[in-house]
Amino acid sequence: xxxxxxxxxxxxxxxxxxxxxxxxxxxxxxxxxxxxxxxxxxxxxxxxxxxxxxxxxxxxxxxxxxxxxxxxxxxxxxxxxxxxxxxxxxxxxxxxxxxxxxxxxxxxxxxxxxxxxxxxxxxxxxxxxxxxxxxxxxxxxxxxxxxxxxxxxxxxxxxxxxxxxxxxxxxxxxxxxxxxxxxxxxxxxxxxxxxxxxxxxxxxxxxxxxxxxxxxxxxxxxxxxxxxxxxxx
Length: 233
What we know:
- The protein is mainly α.
- 66% of the residues lie in helices and 0% in strands.
- The protein is built from 8 helices and no strands.
- It has helices at residues 8-14, 18-22, 53-57, 64-97, 108-128, 138-158, 167-198, 201-229.
- Helix 4 packs parallel to helix 8, helix 6 (138-158) runs antiparallel to helix 7 and helix 7 runs antiparallel to helix 8 (201-229).
- The longest helix is centred in the middle third of the chain and has 34 residues, at 64-97.
- The radius of gyration is 24 Å and the shape is elongated.
- The model is unreliable at 17-49 (pLDDT under 50).
């Protein structure tokens, strides 16, 4: 004997929705509705300038998960800025200043070691980030990122070329390895964390756009500083 037909409400309750079918994990289903829909638009329906939308996307939010998303996105942008702009801009001048007497006029051999080692560290970090148990402590990452850049700057300021020791050169190489290793390890985990907290692929895309905008601004700042510091040469 066939069971009696279900009422409309009961049938709707047992029928999976399209959202549940597309997102069976439902990491944070309620968070997707909390993401403002007007990011990138003004009151008249037009779009803000493309460089403004990423900053607006991570500049507000009172919920606990939203504050953590903002912190992760800005930490990712800061890490990209240090590892790909500031370190790359200062390392050639740093090795020229801290070169030992046996390293030639510009310390190019040490710079080559630093660049190759840093890319290897970036690859190793990216491989380690594929582990399911990988975590990113934001405070530790930001401190290590800042310390590595300050170490490179301190070596350049304290050394009086040519120097009699290789300590400064190896310290700068270690700082480059740490910064680029953090980039390889943390960058994918930052984006993964944004998605875990928000359940929104669009917010992950905005986090990437924020990092790109910050890096572009940093490139121009670094260019102005380099031109200003080398104008007397």
